[in-house]
Amino acid sequence: MAWNNVLCVYYSRTGNTRKAMEEIAKSLGAELAELEDSVDRSGWGGWLRCGVDAMRRTLPPVKCASRFPLTDYRLVIVGSPVWAGRCCSVVRSFLKQNGKDIRNASYVLTRGCEDKNEEIFEQMDRYTPCGHRTAVSLRAGSVGYAFWQEEFLRQTQEFLRTAGR
Ligand SMILES: Cc1cc2nc3c(=O)[nH]c(=O)nc-3n(C[C@H](O)[C@H](O)[C@H](O)COP(=O)(O)O)c2cc1C
Fold first, then answer.
1. In a designed cystine with 12, which of 18, 72, 116, 152 is the match (CB 3.0 to 4.6 A)?
2. Which residue has the CA at smallest separation from atom 19 of ligand 1?
3. Is-contact 29 4, C-beta < 8 A?
4. Which tens digit of pLDDT belongs to each residue from 31-44?
5. Is the CB of 6 under 6 A from ligand 1?
6. Strand pairing of 75-83 and 31-37?
7. What is the mean predicted confidence (pLDDT) over 130-142?
8. With a threshold of 0.90, does the pTM exceed it?
9. Judging by DSSP bridges, how do beta strands 62-64 and 31-37 pair with one another?
10. Which of the listed residues 50, 82, 89, 120 should we mutate to test ligand 1's pocket, taking the one with most ligand atoms within 8 A of CB?
11. Are 156 and 28 in contact (CB under 8 A)?
């Protein structure tokens, strides 16, 4: 299999998570797949819908166009923006549908506020029986952004080096 057997799958409404996941996928030589949302989240109405969906833990229909079944990947890195202190509902839906098929998971959150919201990693683990191997919370434009992204890459590469194929 090409792509180093690693999948980077994400949802992004305004581009921050996309940028982070593109950089991570490039560094790891991983396949990149954007989740296809079924809901119009544009404008203020869309912003509000995101918040309400996150609070209500709504599960919108979602599609993941990975090249191979999820069980084929050695590691699936899941990227989500923080919505109302939770993972976004598109990623929640993806994990609910597919979490059991993920052999090893890593998480990338992007956020707007100071608080890292790291408790979301444990929330996401509820859908992935394997739990997460590595995780990072990134704030776009913050001083520590590059440092924490590098640290995540280092830990993830270490996991890939030591774990079986
Ligand atoms: C409805 C909504 C709720 C949000 N709630 C939070 C929050 O609780 N904490 C936070 O740090 N950022 C919050 N944000 C900001 C986003 O997490 C942040 O801008 C993120 O990087 C957006 O990612 P994206 O550009 O990939 O969509 C919220 C954004 C939206 C749209």
1. 18
2. 112
3. yes
4. 999 999 999 999 99
5. no
6. unpaired
7. 96
8. yes
9. antiparallel
10. 82
11. yes
Taking phi over 0 as left and psi of -120 to 50 as alpha, with beta for the rest, 145 belongs to alpha
Q: Tokens 């929330």 appear where? A: 123
The percentage of the chain sitting over the pLDDT mark of 70, rounded to a whole number, equals 97
Pocket test for ligand 1, best of 9, 83, 110 (most atoms within 8 A of CB): 83
Residue recorded with tokens 């991983």: 30
Domain ranges of the chain: 3-159
pLDDT tens-digit readout, 31-84: 999 999 999 999 999 999 999 999 999 999 999 999 999 999 999 999 999 999
Q: How far apart are CA 122 and CA 50, in angstroms?
A: 21
For 128, the enclosing helix (H) or strand (E) is: none
Ligand 1 nearest atom to the CA of residue 11, by list position:
26
The atom of ligand 1 lying closest to the CA of 139 is 21
User: Among the atoms of ligand 1, which is closest to the Cα of residue 50?
Assistant: 1
The model's pLDDT over 114-132, given as tens digits with 9 standing for 90+, comes to 999 999 999 999 999 999 9
Q: Do residues 17 and 34 make contact, with C-beta atoms less than 8 angstroms apart?
A: no
Between the CA of 88 and the centroid of ligand 1 the distance, in Å, is 9
Q: What is the CATH number of domain 3-159?
A: 3.40.50.360
